[in-house]
Amino acid sequence: MRINNRKCVSRVSIKNLFTSKTKCIVSVIAIALTTILFTSLFTILMTIAKGFEESNFRQVGTYSHAEFKRLTKEQYDELRVDEDILEYGLRRVAGITTGEAFAKSYAEVSYMDKNTAKWGYCTPETGTLPKENTNEATVDTKVLSCLGIEPEIGKSFTLTMDIDGIIVTEDFVLSGWWEYDEAAPASHVLIPESRLEELFTKYNVQFNEVFTGKYGLNVMLKSDHNIEEQMIEILERHGFADGENSENAISIGVNWGYMGENLAESLDFGSVAIIAVILLFIIFTGYLIIYNIFRISVANDIRHYGMLKTIGTTQTQIKSMVQTQTLILSTIGIPIGLIVGWVTGSVLCPVVMSELNVYNSSASVSPWIFVFSAVFAWITVMISCFRPAKTAGKVSPVEALRYTEQASGFSNRSGKKGVSLFGMAAARLTGSKGKTVLVVASLALSIVTFTLTFILANSFDMEKYISDRIQTDFLVADSQYFAYRWNDENAISLEENEFLRYMDGVTDSFVTYGMPSLYYPETYFSEEAVREIFAEYGDEKEFIDGYISRNLEPDGTIAQSVQLLGLEGTAFSKLKVYEGDISKLSESGYIAVEKNDYFKLGDKLTFVYCDKWEYINTQTGAVYTAFESIPLNEYEFIETNEESHEVVYEVAAVVEVPYTFGYRFSLGGSMPLFITSSEDLFAQSEYCKPLYIAFDTTDEVEAEMEKFLADYTETNTLSYTSRATEEASFESFKRMFVILGAALSIIVGLIGILNFINTMITSINSRQREIAALQAMGMTGKQLCTMLIWEGIIYIGGSAIVALLLNLITIPLGNLIEEIFWFCDYSFTIVPLIATIPVFAVIGTVIPVIAYKSLTKKSIVERLRESD
Amino acid sequence: MAILETYNLKKIYGSGENEVHALDGVSLKVEQGEFVSVVGTSGSGKSTLLHMLGGLDRPDDGDVFVDGKDIFSLGDEALTIFRRRKIGFVFQNYNLVPSLNVYENIVLPVQLDGREPDRKYIDSIIETLGLTEKLDNLPNNLSGGQQQRVAIARALAAKPAIILADEPTGNLDSKTSQDVMGLLKITSERFSQTIVMITHNEEIAQMADRIIRIEDGKIVSGK
After folding, report:
1. What is the pLDDT of residue A407?
2. Do B57 and A861 touch (CB under 8 A)?
3. Of A383, A403, A423, which residue is a domain's last?
4. If we measure between CA atoms, which residue out of B91, B69, B72 comes closest to residue B10?
5. Are residue A449 and residue A367 in the same domain, yes or no?
6. CATH architecture group of domain B32-60+79-221
7. Which domain holds residue A571?
8. Cβ atoms within 10 A of the Cβ of A229, count?
9. Taking the CB of the first residue and of the last residue of chain A, which one, N or C, has fewer CB atoms within 10 A?
10. Residues of B in Cβ contact (< 8 Å) with A413
11. A531 lies in some domain
12. Smallest CA–CA separation between A866 and chain B, in Å?
């Protein structure tokens, strides 16, 4: 039989809920605070994810889902109206800029409609896109600086371009510009479509290049999942095929920003573990208070539930009453928490984002933030209410009348000494252990969060940080070097080196040389070493087996490309030498190696230096001796080592090379880095180029040099780091850590204090009659107050002791902490703990006094009469 | 010598049409060592009278003298201190402190006064009330009758001038009620303790030395 009693059950639970205003308010605040923690966390995480995605899009150059490439006008008109395409944009390429102004980097000259420009980050910040039938052009600031013209609307300029192989020079009028983004793949000159057609006609363009004048259809699809499948489906619907070779083939380009390295994929186990720990921490924090609130409230209402049972309410109905109450409280608390949490998160985002190497975008408003936060908050509430609901449901009507909180404690207490006020307070708290433990844990958690934040921030060792990041006062290199993308094209020039080296106040300087990846020398590794390195890099066993069988030399070794650094002067003294003698490198025939598992001191190693490459087109078989001579429309070629020479070195030293001292990127796995002298490197390879110049200055000119470099590197592609910038970056990291830690401590602290307040007030309220009886027996207001304050102090003192113990546990974990924060020199201090004590002591005394005041508003007689 | 005296006690609740004369000119005298019961129906004003006698509530008019002291001339804190030295309470629902064991509950009023309990005296109370075996128990592990015996011991502990008992058997079954009343009677005699007990139960009231009847805030007999 099924009886419809839902309405009745929920009516009773709602009525019961609102009889206790304090409980309602406290629960809503507790649920809201827990939700704030979740929402802030998810806001920060999603903003980082958005930053990652944004960085990817910036690198791709657009956030449109995909592009149908190189269409004819007819194909373009047919495809763009497809029902699966939500929005589309057009791009047609005219050519690229050329000439002396663009010797270092070129810009693409093209027509983009409004959508394509917007998606491609080419919307002018000043001015407008070029208008049709004018000679206007809109460019990025890099083009402006290459041309050396002032940004000014209406300014005329000339541009030399390569249009389908024809070099032409044309006049334009500047109609707008936008800030060039270092991450962008290309620089742009946007012209109207009319001008594009005009140029093609004027120069009688034959469309030899595959892309010239073709229609590129950028699209936004219904969803950013399975973009490739959706694109192919669209093509097939119109009778086209994906690809390049067949008659009806149209090639598509999918934005890898949507499927490539997004945050979820780049998360390693460590980050996932950290996030999981934080989530568990928040659940636990929320549980401590919400569980306590409901436990107390069920205990206080137990007679009410007993009465309901007496009149025939079932266990399930009572359980669902408690759950209905939590549902109502959550519907109020969670939305409040979501809003406040998002605001908190978005305030904290810039602090975090500035420390990450991702695009600093505004706080994410992804609906997932709110979904995840609400779900986690709801889970926390459900976990917290599970036991109280069960207790309420299981209550026996008879026992409910006798039930008081101590009922569970059958253990008696011996002692014939009587008790002091402190003793009474202590007895009270040890009598209701559950409640006390929850409050103490809750408060201790906030103290630990706070103290650990400051102990750690205090342990961050600036010298340790800086000495690993920079070995000299200044280090200047091309900005690509700092972006982990150094290659010979962006080596700092010899002139720059000489210029910087002879500046006033420079006391010592050295240039470190590297080689472009194409010319890395090879040396011979054992088969085991290669297996280990490849496996560590993440290669599958089958791949490694195949690779080894193809490349194994008769003597059982395998040649591998390795990174080699050429050092000079005092650079050698910056290395940490584990064994051997680094000074031997001044003689030829000696090499040093980064500490590794495969090569040791005294090993004789053969290095193969490549002197000349050949490029073979795999389709035509044509051979080109220089990369530059390969025609632009040929893509498929392999490189072969045409000429090379060998050098035998003896390992003279095993050293440690700071990460910021070398290439700033490695070949993956545990592939070691080799060091030789710059003279030797020059002698072996004509392709070696300076990675950077590092120098020290006198103290007097250090600040001046800093300012000079800041201005100087604005005008060119160079960039620099210095002791001062590293100090700033250290301080900025420390600040982020402190701000996040403080924010977390504040919210966790509020939860702890709220838990304390609620417990204190409800416990005093539920003892109204007991306290009235004590007063009747002659306990003065002062004594009563003292007793209640003792209760508060015991909570606070207990929390401080627990927090201290938890802090002490971290001392043996110091090594682990130093491993996570490598620049941390863990030093324990109880100063932050002591600093929190006055705050909590005030709360611990003020709350009982307030509770006492509100209690004594009612006369003793009134309270004595109350039959609960 | 009268250990307790009241003159023309008046207490009015509400005003205008709703005005209720809870006490309407009550004057009475209780001698040292007397065991007096106050009987009346609910709403007769007997509880209000007891609260006045114990200094828990102040009258609108009239005076209460306990051991020769005009108790309402005292300020609140002084009155509280007076109470713990001169008045012992026994409540219907015992009102023991649940976190303290039996012994601690008993000596609590003495210790609140900053005094050391008189061990010999306390032991004799404990023995009289049959609590010797229960001293380490927490109140929740005791039966109602046992709890009320602890409450009586607690009321006696400070050697008060007077014990005020508010329906001390109200929560007990009749057998236990008889036991508790017997004990009250014995303590009254053995320790020469003045006791004023209110009850609505005639049978219980009969065990006292004297019965005062109260109706509509006025004493109707037994003054």
Report:
1. 42
2. yes
3. A403
4. B72
5. no
6. 3-Layer(aba) Sandwich (3.40)
7. 563-687
8. 10
9. N
10. 101, 136, 138
11. no
12. 11
Contact A129, A117 (CB under 8 A): yes
pLDDT class of A40 with cuts at 50, 70, 90: very high
Does residue A489 lie in a domain region?
Answer: no
Residue B98: which of A406, A412, A416 has the nearest Cβ? Answer: A406
Rounded to the nearest integer, the mean pLDDT of chain A is 85
- The Cα-based distances of B110 to A550, A787, B117, B121 in angstroms read 97, 16, 6, 12
How far away is chain B from the Cα of A407, in angstroms, using its nearest Cα?
6
Instruction: Tally the domains of chain A.
Output: 4
* Domain presence at residue A544: no
* CA–CA separation, A613 and A687 (whole Å): 12
Q: Is the pLDDT of residue A621 over 90?
A: no
What are the pLDDT digits (tens) for A116-133? Answer: 999 999 999 989 999 999
Mean pLDDT for A199-228 is 87
Q: Is the pLDDT of residue B17 over 90?
A: no
Interface-testing mutation among A777, A780, A790, A856, with chain B (most B C-beta atoms within 10 A):
A777
Q: What angle do CA A778, A781, A783 make, to 5 degrees?
A: 75
Q: Which of A409, A423, A867 has the CB atom closest to B138's CB atom?
A: A409
Give the residue from A773, A793, A822 showing the smallest Cα distance to A659: A822
Which letter does DSSP use for residue A240 in this model?
A: -
Same domain, A848 and A728: yes
Same domain, A745 and A864: yes
Listed range (A116-125, A251-260, A499-508) with the worst mean pLDDT: A251-260
Mutate to test the interface with A, among B82, B93, B97 (most CBs of A within 10 A): B97
pLDDT at A378: 94
* Spatial separation of the C-alpha atoms in residues A647 and A523, rounded to whole Å: 10
Q: Are residues A419 and A362 in the same domain?
A: no
**ipTM value for the complex:** 0.86
Considering CB atoms only, which of B89, B95, B103 is closest to A416? B103
Going by pLDDT thresholds of 50, 70 and 90, the confidence category of residue A261 is very low
Taking contacts as CB-CB distances below 8 angstroms, the residues of chain A near B113 are 778
